[in-house]
Design brief:
heterodimer, A: 113 residues, mainly beta, 4-stranded antiparallel sheet, 10 strands, 52% strand, globular, B: 113 residues, 7-stranded mixed sheet, 11 strands, 0% helix
């Protein structure tokens, strides 16, 4: 489940394994979703996005799955590398909000070499 | 393409003092956002500009926070007077069009003592 404040959910994986990071979004009217990666001391970096008329989108080593029925988003990272270690945030854009992104609390991914 | 520029990177002030942050978005981006990110949490929108007009400032504590984007390019965010709970990273982001990904700067880490 999700944590509050300093206690981010943490996912620890071995280098080379696949990672799956999950996110439950709040607004059934959201029609655009983004995954961001945030390394320590840096701003969030765009990874991949998906619109509500799709249920799957693939990028380089990453796949985003969208299940609108249960308001669930996941990010799959193939062959996880040490450089993937970071905090990952999902963000949703409610329809009609004019681009305002609402961020989830984040998941910390730790990759063990 | 140059990214979103923010300054300063770090700022330490005493409570009740004032502080200002500066942001230069990606060239040509009409939409500019200011987010507050408290340690261990996802970014929270403070204010969104479209060109030099405010689109959403519903979560901006207007008794102490103010922001402007006079010429539709650079923006400043001010806090006066600061409180201990304002300690956070202040992130500026920009996007070219609504409902597309926002690109973030590295942020300004504010510590109020």
């Amino acid at each position: 489940g999700e944590s509050v404040g300093l206690h981010l959910p943490t996912l620890s994986v071995q280098e080379g394994d696949n990672s799956i990071i999950n996110c439950a979004y709040s607004n059934s009217a959201s029609d655009y979703f983004i995954w961001y990666k945030q390394e320590s001391g840096k701003g969030p970096q765009f990874i991949i996005d998906i619109r509500s008329n799709m249920d799957k989108r693939q990028g380089q080593r990453v796949t985003v799955l969208l299940n609108k029925t249960v308001k669930h988003l996941s990010l799959q990272i193939a062959a996880t590398q040490p450089g993937d270690s970071a905090v990952y945030f999902c963000a949703e854009n409610p329809r009609g909000s004019q681009g305002n992104l609402i961020f989830g609390k984040g998941t910390k991914l730790s990759v063990k070499p | 393409e140059a990214g979103v520029a923010q300054s300063p990177r770090y700022k330490i002030i005493e409570k009740r003092q004032s502080v200002a942050f500066w942001c230069n978005p990606i060239s040509g981006h009409a939409t500019l956002y200011w987010y507050q990110q408290i340690l261990g949490q996802g970014p929270k929108l403070l204010i969104q500009f479209q060109n030099n007009g405010v689109v959403d400032d519903s979560q901006l504590p207007k008794d102490r926070f103010s922001a402007e984007r006079l010429k539709g390019v650079d923006s400043t965010l001010k806090i006066q007077p600061a409180k201990l709970e304002d300690s956070a990273v202040y992130l500026c982001a920009s996007s070219g069009t609504l409902n597309t990904e926002a690109f973030f700067g590295q942020g300004t880490r504010l510590t109020v003592v």
